[in-house]
Queue: 3 jobs
Job 1
Amino acid sequence: MVFTITDFIVGFSFTKSLFHLSLSSSFAIGRYGFGKGRVVISQLMRRPLFYAAVFLGGAILLQSYFFPDLDKKRLPKNDISYFVHDEKSLVTLGGTIVSEVEKRETFYGGTKASFILKTGRIWKADNKESMPVSGLVKIYLPNPKSPLDYGDEIVTKGELAFAKGMRNPDGFNYRAYLERQRIRAVFYADKKVEVKILRHDQGNFIQAKALKVKKVLSRSLSATFNSRDASFLKALFLGERSNFEEDFKDLFIKTGTMHILAVSGFNIGFLILSVFFLLKIFPISRDFKYLVTLVAIWSYCLVVGWQAPVVRASVMATVFILGKVLGRKTDILNTLGLAAVIILLVNPGQFFDLGFQLSFLAVFGIAGFLPIFSKKPELLPNEKFTIREKLIRYFKELFWLSFVCQIITLPITVQNFYIVTPLSLVANLVVVPTSFLLFFSGVLFFLTFWWVPQFLGFLPLVMKGLMQFFVGSLFVIENFPGSYVIVGRLEFWLLALLISGVLFFLLDPRIKNSWVRAAVLVLFLSNIFLVRDLTRYFHREFSMTALDVGQGDSIYFEFPKGGNLLVDAGRGWDSDKGRWVIAPFLKSKGVRTLDALVISHPQADHIGGMPTVLDEFKIKNVVEAGSRYDTKLFYLVRKKIEKEKAACLLARRGMKLEGFPDVTILVLNPSGRNAAKNINDDSVVLKVIYKNTSFLLTGDIQEETIRNLLDQNIASTVLKTPHHGAKFGSSGEAFAKAVNPKISVISVGERNPYKHPSPKTMGILNSIPGNRVYRTDESGAIRLVSDGEKVKVLDSLF
């Protein structure tokens, strides 16, 4: 497996939390008169599976850190990863589809299918004979002509490659994500070659039937509800989020209710309650009801897929139900340990999966800490709760459950989402009971849609009303001040302090009152995040980061005495770089406000990610050339800028951007006299000067503007190469010599159709004495730091 430093920190935090709790519990019990050694032994004997899971997780963590290549050495010699080379590997590949075939619309108006292929044969481009091959591959197929399905045996031609690893600081490591699923390579099918289907129904019979059931259920929702509502219900019931709108998903993340859409313990709990409620009307034995419930649980698990959270919940529910049948008392932590051991033995890589960590850590917190805050009241003989008392008790327990889950999973959520959601405690009081009603209505819908005529069915109306209340409540909570706060990624020492502090205040026996304990925890966490902000403020340096946004531009500056600047935001739509690259990067640094957002020019590869940036961050100033571009994206960005109420500045030659201490930012283009024939030549050109170092940002300028810049002082330490390294015109060599850079940065996408960067441009840049050329398609994001005298290129490994 390939794991990152991020994986190590998060995994270490998870294991350390469990280890500290077990030690703290042992010492706490020891204070009450037991010997520490006897307590440890008794704990191990009482919960052997729980501690087995802890030690197994620790072993996986240590193996990944000290022996990261051990798994690769165990691969068979014909594994698909051995057929991938640094250069393009054009091959013909044969195998069987072993996953659902997902289809999405692309930025260019076509469709892209993706699925997992269990490989069988491979033909190299220069060899007519095939060779046996094994392993899983992620296939990307543009505009598929033939309908493909699970179990189809196919042959197709294309490019075999490794998936992208960490391309941007604190970004998503797609390669590690796939390897956790034992997928060793990706395959980009040739647009000109049609997939050949050799045979159908070659997959697992049970899995094939489960996927067909899932498709039937999915189609029933699509036929009954509009696309937005159907996508929400598919995510809630079936864990199908391929068509779930990202803006809609953000609503759940920002209100701390994303767990509702993650098929996990909530779904299994709702399913069990629904099944028990429906079986009440039948005169059957208790044990038979339990049997029906077990069948329902594992059938549901099979239909939605074997994701770690739902497997964990299914294993735990099964153990508890069998305990009821056999009259045996079950221990939550021991049952949790059993589920963890099963999942990790089948696939150790799941230990580093975010869903696995959050799911198990939440249940661990509920089992270990919820009793500290919420204790079951003792009743007198024949005493019963009134309905009012039951409701108060229900919402009080739900509040404390949400509080405990948020506190105990905070190290994971902060390091991965970079936000805290204080109002999630309020949101869960609304969405959890509403989700149960919606889930129960959905169970009835799935049981009746195939035989009850649609015009007689009232369930869709009920479900529609519940959804409107559900989503409307979240919109109100999201727009409330302080609903979520960007806090950034914590340094290791702060993360360790947070974990140890949370455990200390949770276990401190001196605090008797639950509300006092909660207040102390909130105050402690507020101080942690305040220290994080202060540390960042007093350790700022001049830095420039050319983010890897594929075939596009996005450059972020941070200045020593305050202030920041973002130039462009890459492409949007199906691969929204604003959402997947820029926003996570800025949030990880704790950025909440951008002092200046520069639009070099309004083409899609520069403003595609702007809508997300404008939604996610407060923008003080927008700097642009004023060029118009008749596209829907252009008008969407204009509308969001007006809504943001930022100050808009028209960039013109000779201007200086004010408000940045110790930094001078000059505008070199456009002149503002006459609009250029080519919109690229109206790009905003900036020269950022910090003491004796300077950075020239050139947008997509071409020959006309390059020639016009020669009469200005364009000499710079760093050059952002124009137009993604496109071929220089007749003035290109004179321009490069006039700039005379020590470092040239080319923002360019892998396998781009324009063949950028041009060999001629590369030749000119490489001919400049002392100039080093860096490309985002090769190095990922390029990070530069200046002390005012020299510019240092930081290690591209994140």
Note: The chain has 26 helices and 27 strands.
Job 2
Amino acid sequence: MLRRGHHWDPLCFLEQHFHPYECLEVSKSALMTRNPKCPANTTELTAGLHRFDIDALRELAGEKVFARGVAYHEDGQVEIVRCERIRVLARVVGSEVYRCELAGAAKKFSGECSCPAFSDGGFCKHLVATALTVNSLGSGTLEQASNRFAKIREHLRAKGIEGLVEMVVGLAERDPSLLKELELSTAASTADDKTLFAQFKKAVTEATRTHSFVEYRKVRGWVQGIESVLDRIAGLVESGRAALGLQLLDHFFARMDKALEDIDDSDGGGGRVYAKACVIHLAACRQAKPDPVSLARALFAREVDSDLEFFHGASEAYEDVLGDAGLAEYRRLAHEAWKAIKPLRATKRQVQDDQFSVRYALRAILESFAEREGDVDGVIAIRARDLSTAYDYLSIAQLCLDHARETEALKWAEEGLWQFEDNPDERLILFAADLYGRIGRDPDAGKLLWRTFERRPGLQLYERLKSATIDRRSADAVRDRALDWLRAQLGKPPGRWGPQGSSASELFVRLAMTEGLLTDAWTVVSGHGCSEGLRQELAEASENSHPAEALKVYESRVERMVSLGGQINYQSAYDLVGHMRRVRERLGEPRSKPLMLMI
């Protein structure tokens, strides 16, 4: 941006407004590498002398992408635009002309390309081709690339101001985006605030316009247009026009709140550009020093009324700007709004919380104020307005424990256990059991864990029960009790408190495998079955102790893969047959007739 009181460097101006390779019409020293083609193994033989390590390049890109990059390089489709010590800029001719940039060297480097493949999958063939081209350049050509812009600078300075002006204006006539940039730069330097606001507002509107849904591959270009305008607004703030910047950002946020609903922001580009605007907004507020009460109201509305979280924690981020008056207003607004939030309690039926978004935002705001003042009771009171889940009780109990209030922590934990006795949360159960142990009530911890295990048995609870034992004998007692209970459930239909996420037989087998009781595991599998995946795990664990059972599982798996068909399944079946042969040989069994695969 052109600013008053700054020396104007014509090349700096060009570098700001053009991709570097767009300045090439002033210099004919293009570094195209069309000839000669290098032998396919040249890069391999001299990899140690290269700027970019070939093995690292191949690993980063993958064999297929690397091979296509080699072809691009050998066909001379790469033009090195700029080559610096830690940065390379190039244009690569593919289905379109793409801008490639590499940073770093040796085995530590990264890249960015304007092609769709980079957005979809990362390191692309164009970046591979660029790296290989740099590696292939001789010292003289590298020096030429490094000095390329020095020559351009000399050329531009020789043209004089009038010559440069005519050149830039001529380029702007052919490039609408450049024309827009120049108009904004001119307005920023010469126009009054009213005129400038109108022009920048129009630029923000055009940049954030979506027309229709913006697909994934087009989002990047859309975001770049917005970033360009935001850079101009940041320039206004830096040049002392922060108040004007705040007005423009108000318009930007209103536009972006709607625009983000109409884009595929899988890569988060839209979110990042919104966050960038928030950073500029904070800087503008610190410079313009708006009325703190008015600012508090505006920030509060953005934090509470929007489903987006870009202004989450605004009262802390803007604390120095808001001051005592603004913070007081922020807190008042939160307390007033909090009065309208209905308390939530445990209920047997699912209730739709139509205040969820506002509740979440207000709770965060009020907790932030209370925590800054060290008001633990205040935080507890805020959290106690929502006790609709067992985890809500856990959050309060944990807060009490963090502040050495063990008695209160246990009270909240036990109340949560009682309220959600029919729908327990294992996290709260484990917390309460640990707290019982901490205060010397180990029998109560054991009773709680066993009661829970018999309602919703699981490996984590089992391991927790075992961890509380003090010797091998008591650990074995826990093991036997758990297995006996599970054995008693075998064949029964899953009850209301049946094993969570698996059948009794499934959990029995996993627990028995954990304890090395493979015979018991196979007995249950034989009588009650289990999933194919678990059966495979058991077979792999039993190759030495129960080879017949393991091999039978493998044979069944081979037959299933062959019946499914397909090259991958055939290869997997072939590999598994080979593994079965090795198992038999390791066990000293005679060679059996080979399993015939009807492929």
Note: The chain has 29 helices and seven strands.
Job 3
Amino acid sequence: MMRQSFLLWKSKKTGPKSPPFWYNCSMQKQQTILKNYTGNSGVYQLVLPLNMEVLIPEDDSVRLLSHITEELDYTNLNMAYSSKGRNPVVKPKTLFRVLVYAYMNNIYTSRKIEEACKRDINFMWLLQGQKAPDHNTIARFRNGRLSGNVEGLFNQLVTKLSELGEIQYENIFIDGTKIEAYANKYTFVWKKTTLKNEQSMQEKAKAFLKKLNIEFNASLPLSESPITVETLHKAVDFLKEKQKEEEIEFVYGKGKRKTELQRATEMMQEFLEKQTKYDRYNKTFAGRNSFSKTDTDATFMHMKEDHMRNSQLKPGYNVQIGVEGEYIVGIDISSERSDQLTLIPFLQKLGKNLPQSYRHIVADAGYEGEENYVYLQNQKQKPFIKPQSYETMKKRSFSKMIGKRENMDYDAEKDEYLCFNHKKLLAVGKTTRTSKSGYKSDVTLYECESCEGCTFKTRCTKAAGNKKLTTSKLFLEKRAESLHNITTPEGILLRMNRSIQVEGAFGVLKEDHSFRRFVMRGKKNVETEFLLLGFGFNINKLHNKIQKDRCGCLLHEIEVA
């Protein structure tokens, strides 16, 4: 108690401590930082070299890009701009270089490219003193003016590589991969579901039109099948005219009772909207089984990147490339999920873009087909395509599959097969098989003379009757030729280089460049984007080969242990 009284007495006596003599009242205020940061710092002398070019190494890839693109013809790109009005902020040639260099350095979005133009000295060097473009300028240039012209610039680069001796139009390695589209993966539209819903709606619409003809004395046609949008338009117009004649006012809202005429009008309008939507969907399918509402050119496909491990279908594109000498010489964007149907369109496009045709076509088993073999024969191109059953035939268990055609003896003169139980499979007829692309193939049907009582039937076939085979003789002939080609020393060397060059190119694009999804929508824009990526890939490849003294090396040799 005495201790507390003493402390209270001392505090009253001394009072609060007074501030020191040097204390300034202005220090109580919080310091502020100006928006213009140069006003917050002292006076500094800015030191820059007189020539900013000395900051860029002499062997930098940006110098090679500037040198290569300087010799290209930009006439078509310049024609995309109007001759009237003000000049563009950045020259088209310069902006094209900026885009290519951005794709060379894994920069794909327009905002990131804008940021690089303001901060990266290599981009500033490419601009050559021109104002840094904003993201809107970059997006409009890439989506609009560059689209349709970048393919010509890419083809000029391929021609330039051939002049440098990096391409000889000898061996082309072809492969494809699926890349995800810039679309919502839950906005799918399936063809089977659309046809099913359309058929159900058609039946309801026919019954309702028949009811209208009876109740409202209409003369709407019912004989046509299916009912078209024009007929539904006529039905809606008829009901609206009926409303005007009878001066009936349609009511809406809770507690309102609708007339039969209003219910019929609303029902017909619903049929009209649905049929219009189904017609638009069927036109969009164009031979496909699905598409995305966000990007109607994208098809739902299985991707190699399956993070959920549930084989989920995602909207994407089937990207086809051709590689020679480790350079990408051709690009095609397809909505087809199967590689087999993409080979001929890709080669046709390649023939239009390049001055020469390739002699040897090297591809994996996914491209094998009679139509492709016949096309290569007509174009006088030698196929090095691995048969689809090639890997299976090398297994020891394949010889035990007695029901396979390859394990049966064939008599070419009598045109018959001999099964494991020495029973004959005779030719019983011929038919024509039409592929999705419209190609017609002649197919021969074979049937065993009798499988009754055969002890090997369960190992040979699951059919209730006799064993049957269907095969195309032309396809077997072309497959045998291609099999012979890939088993020669030249074929073995080309197959090894295919796995190194074209699959290696996809590995670089997906892993090193982290390009796993497009940033633009629409097949045309997607092709523009991948051509920019391919252009940058070729410049990087040429730069690496120059620095490592590998110029002129088109094939990797087989290392002998």
Note: The longest helix spans residues 260-285.
